[in-house]
Amino acid sequence: MDNPALTTLLTQVFNSQRQTGQKFILLVMPEDDWPRTEEFLDVQQLVNRIKELDGQPVHLYAFMGHRLQITKGPNRYLQTPIGALPLFDIPAGDTAEEEDHGWVGPSMDKPEAPTAEQVEDADALDEVEESNPELVTIPAIAAQAGETPAAAEGDTPMFDG
């Protein structure tokens, strides 16, 4: 169109026909960078930006509407103008596994018997300590500093209340 008055009229009509909250969105996909979106409140701003990028090594896709964001994880949502939609599967309540002991905190470490490999490693460490009397251990360093070593093996630590 070579008629500036008609172009101005068309721009005004196009801007006024948008629903509340809708924007003009330009998806820019450069050849050597991450895709990105640019948002505009006026169609003329969109047109000007497309003119700026014309001839550059990019793919351009223009839209009018609401940009739907995706939230950070681990439980992601698609945010829409009328509410958030979960992007994860919610298990049925009747198929969920029940908790036997009622604990809902972080995983509790349960003591397990040492494996044969761990016993061999501990025996090898004892042999190294016996053959090297000058080897200094942390409880020995604490004792030299005049401090009481932390809990001895088998002792229960005490906390001041």
Describe this structure in words.
The chain is of the alpha+beta class and 161 residues long. The protein has a domain at 11-70. Helix content is 29%, strand content 19%. The chain is built from 4 helices and 6 strands, in the order αββαββββαα. It has helices spanning 4-16, 43-53, 116-131, 138-144; strands at 23-30, 36-40, 58-65, 69-70, 77-80, 83-86. A 3-stranded antiparallel β-sheet has the order 2-1-3, covered by helices on one side. A 3-stranded antiparallel β-sheet has the order 4-5-6, with no helix packed on it. A hairpin with a 2-residue loop joins β5 and β6. The longest helix is centred in the C-terminal third of the chain and has 16 residues, at 116-131. The radius of gyration is 34 Å and the shape is elongated. It starts with a helix and ends in a 17-residue tail after the last helix.
Biggest beta sheet attributes: 3 strands, antiparallel
* Oligomer status: single chain
- Tell me the Rg in angstroms: 34 Å
Low-confidence stretches: none
Q: By helix and strand content, what is the structural category?
A: alpha+beta
How many helices? The count is 4
Spatial order of strands in the largest sheet: 2-1-3
Shape: elongated
Arithmetic mean pLDDT: 80
Note the main attributes of this structure:
29% helix; three-stranded antiparallel beta sheet; alpha+beta; single chain; elongated; 161 residues; 6 strands
